[in-house]
């Protein structure tokens, strides 16, 4: 706690976080809190699960308390934007626990639920408004809230907001908040667009980086099983059934795929739920609560729905399908090994996905350990009329200089050329072959 004290936070906030059980600040908190307290703009490069919410939430609350003002009706003094409903609710719930010994008020607004109660709540004004961009603009257009008194703007998980197409909404919102303001931008990865966004919206920002952009969570043990797409669901069911005490998040690329897989798991006797775009907010909340409280063992999710959610105790993240965008892999595996715990990230990779796997390895700078099967040659989608000769196979993957066999590949059988084409794991992987 002494370390938290030395960061300059008020006693009221220190008392609250002591009660929550935070003892030592995480690296992002240690670095960011003093800078934010000084009033600097900040560009925070941090993975999910690093304690980002307190890194911006605590100094923000401190500064709002110091100003000692109360919010005007329909106004917000500080605005926090996040890409998904789940993340907004999570941030709001964390903030509420930080400020519960203060007169500050936190309000959250998200899409997918009735707007009228939100309009009513905003009528009184709020100190901190946490919102998804779309619903916020709806409320602005209905004149339920105005933002010109917001002198703090936080963009959390900015890269994901861009991925979700919120760039126009962000531009519009940035024009509505107070011109003289403190802006904090957090992102797990740093694509060009984020650099541009930072240049436009931040004024002489301090940069805080707790892990280089794209680096995957250090405590996550990552492995990959190569197999045919059709073999995946049976393989996953076996793997999950094998370990009764795991809490798992399984990622699929599409909502239909996620729903199908969830049903397959349930049919196999696994207590599984799903969160994706076809589920109502209540259904999603219930599923997340189920996993948190242990009534569900597995949550099957799409990237967008699971973005940023904090479920302590997720021991395994399965990539049932690899994400189209390599950065999403970093976000996915950041769902495990949170706040000091360790975790496993297990990817099931078909021939069609090998190129995606290579992109992930390039981004993260690591070679993911092969737990079973053998890396097939990547299947290239060739446009009609160009190089499309029947029977022609793409070149064998030789990037590692050992004929496609990767270093660290211990448990996978050496497949013949024929087996290679089929991409099926020959035997159950040895999952205990590294220190837990
Ligand atoms: P976040 O990255 O903000 O989603 O935080 C990830 C998890 O770490 C949450 O469960 C937080 O409650 C927890 N956490 C954040 N800061 C600390 C801290 N200083 N000590 C212990 N746990 C923390």
Shape: globular
Strand order of the largest sheet: 3-4-2-5-6-1-7
Please, how many helices? 17
Largest sheet: 7 strands, parallel
Give the cofactors and ligands: adenosine monophosphate
- CA distance, first residue to last residue: 29 Å
Strand composition percent: 15-25%
Classify the secondary structure makeup into a structural class: alpha/beta
- The CATH topology of the largest domain comes to Rossmann fold
Counting structural domains, the number is: 2
Name the CATH superfamily assignment of the largest domain: P-loop containing nucleotide triphosphate hydrolases
The count of DSSP E runs of length 2 or more, i.e. the number of strands, is 14
CATH class type of the largest domain:
Alpha Beta
Helix content: 25-40%
Q: Tell me the CATH architecture of the largest domain.
A: 3-Layer(aba) Sandwich
Describe this structure in words.
Strands 3-4-2-5-6-1-7 form a seven-stranded parallel sheet, sandwiched between helices. The longest helix has 16 residues, at 52-67. It has two domains: 3-209, Rossmann fold; 220-372, P-loop containing nucleotide triphosphate hydrolases (Rossmann fold). The chain is globular, with a radius of gyration of 23 Å. It has helices at residues 2-5, 11-20, 27-38, 52-67, 85-98, 116-123, 133-141, 158-163, 167-176, 192-201, 232-242, 255-267, 281-293, 303-306, 326-333, 354-364, 417-422, and strands spanning 42-45, 76-81, 106-109, 126-131, 152-155, 182-187, 206-209, 220-226, 248-252, 272-275, 298-302, 316-319, 343-349, 369-372. The chain is built from 17 helices and 14 strands. Helix content is 38%, strand content 16%. The two termini are 29 Å apart. By secondary structure, it is an alpha/beta fold. The relative contact order is 0.11.
